[in-house]
Amino acid sequence: MKVQKKMMDITLIAMVALSVAACSTNGQPPASEMTRQAVDISTPEQTSYASQYQTSVFLGDSITEGLSYHDVLKDKNVLAGAGKTAEFALQDIDELVKRKPQHIFIQLGSDDILWPTDNPKEYSLSYYGQLIDRIKVRLPETSITILSVTPVTAEAEKAEPRYRNIGDYNEGLKELSSKVQVGFIDVSSIVSAHPDMYDADGIHFQAEFYPILLDYVKNELGRQKSAK
């Protein structure tokens, strides 16, 4: 019986190996990526940022999602996804309430400015305002800070001219933050200072960018607090 069981175990291992190999050749993540997604590997750096932002949630699109994708923050501290707009983020309020964050950082707009409407900025900011109002009602003790939309490379802007509106959109976010009385942090300067950290598409960022972003946000919050 022991020999039979051993043979069955060997057969099962072989089947798993073949399955992983098949996934890597059929448009699925390679084995190393699947392992990264399945196993929680905490580095000292991740532990540090996870501690600093343990009571925060970052709400945003695929750019914000990089915080958890690159293992800089835990999944519980990031509520983001590709294609998310201010309108779509309204669907996340129940989940935000469940997580009970003390601070919410919102970084939306990269997809909003591409929305097929006559005035994407006006359309988006109306929903952005609704989003903040609803968060305030459901989580009245939670601090809210808007983060500006990150600029793209010249090549990405050339490929999609609507990205030229990022600066104007960020001005709208700054005005909105003043109107609804929430925080605002313009992160454009750190992007300009680290142009080598873009991904190949010139829109998203490599893993090394996100610790810099979190350090900047922390320092800006401290500066703003001191200025009050």
From TrEMBL:
The keyword rRNA processing does not apply. This is Lysophospholipase. Residues 1-21 form the signal peptide. InterPro entries: Ester_Hydrolysis_Enzymes, SGNH_hydro, SGNH_hydro_sf. It comes from the Bacteria. Keywords: Signal. Residues 58-210 form the SGNH hydrolase-type esterase domain.
